[in-house]
Amino acid sequence: MAIVTKAQPVPDFSGVWQRNFPGASSLVPDPPMTSWAQERFDLAKPLHGPRTASATQSNAAEMQCLPMGFPGTYYRPRPFEIIQLPNRVVMLFEINNFWRIVYMDGRDFPEVPLHTWNGYSIGHYEEDTLVIETRNILGWESENQQRWLDRLGHPFSDQVRIIERIRRVDAESIVNEVSIHDPIAYENVLTGTLNFRKRDFELAEFVCQELMLSELPEMRPE
User: Fold this and answer.
1) DSSP per-residue codes, 42-81
2) Apex CA 109: angle with CA 105 and CA 115, to 5°?
3) Between residues 131 and 61, which one has the greater pLDDT?
4) CA 203: distance to chain centroid?
């Protein structure tokens, strides 16, 4: 593994990025689910795809103003910004105004894991690629506390391990090769590619609760 040292140039991923793939798609079409995952997938009421539910009936995390985790968050249409620092990479997401820290200082994962909405991320550079491993993500909890890999309802457990390999394709685009390891939910390792384009604007404020309290009844969950 060729990890970038201080003497080597660090690839530049700084800037504002936005998805360049269908928001209603899945990282892996029809992933081979275990019985555990299939049972929970059948309970999902997504806002997108062939099993679309109305906004008032959906149990998608986004309709409860809750984080979707990764890679699900990437499917939201709003942009995110990457800021590279010497000992960490920070991702600022317009969705819910939340941030993600990728530790780049050589640390290991905590011996006593604390599961959180977006998990614990550790990264390093391999030549022109930013490699991120994320563990300790809160998984599927209940019918009304859903967390999915995408916007179609594919669940994940709290044992999921996600590896991302982000590299620059050209001045205007990056690609993220994602591997999902979750033997509780899927029979095989899931792999897929997400593409993002660079955007020439700043992130805006996004307050999910304001949307939920709006005068539009179709936007309020039951």
Assistant:
1) TT---SSSTT---TTT---GGGGT----TTGGGGSSS-EE
2) 125
3) 131
4) 18
Distance (Å, rounded) from C-alpha 100 to C-alpha 153?
23
Alpha carbons 202 and 80: distance in angstroms, whole number: 9
Question: Which of 111, 93, 109 lies closest to 163 in space, CA to CA?
Answer: 109
> Exposed/middle/buried for 92, CB within 10 Å: 0-12, 13-18, 19+?
middle
Tokens of 188: 């095989």
- What was the pLDDT predicted at 220? 45
| Whether pTM exceeds 0.70 | yes
Paired strand residues for 194:
176
- Tell me the C-alpha distance between 101 and 8, whole Å: 23
Residue 148 burial (C-beta neighbours within 10 Å; 0-12, 13-18, 19+): buried
Q: Are 67 and 117 in contact (CB under 8 A)?
A: yes
pLDDT digits (tens, 9 = 90+) for 71-117: 999 998 899 999 999 999 999 999 988 899 999 999 999 999 899 99
Nearest to 147 by CA among 221, 24, 40, 31: 40
d(CA 217, CA 74): 27
Cβ atoms 196, 19 nearer than 8 A: yes
Q: What is the dihedral of CA 46, 49, 51, 53, to 10 degrees?
A: 50
Structure tokens at 220: 């309020």
CB 19 within 8 A of CB 201: no
